[in-house]
């Protein structure tokens, strides 16, 4: 009915497919969490730092679980964390300097 290659690609046993789904879902959720963090931090620094601590704890636990599943996925997600934190830091720094100038 379907070509054999298509059946293997969509199969539930396809580790590459599940890895891509895991990375994409994690990318979206981490981006949203960092956007919420930056919003909270700009309004109230104390609450923002508490939220950041919560994000760090959740990130470490998630990274530990992913590393036990696959080292390659863990390294990709760890690199993703570093890049997203760097982008968030630059964005917050720019917003805070603009806020001080007003």
TrEMBL record:
The chain crosses the membrane at residues 16-37, 49-67, 73-92. Keywords: Membrane, Transmembrane, Transmembrane helix. It comes from the Bacteria. This is Uncharacterized protein. It comes from Rossellomorea aquimaris.
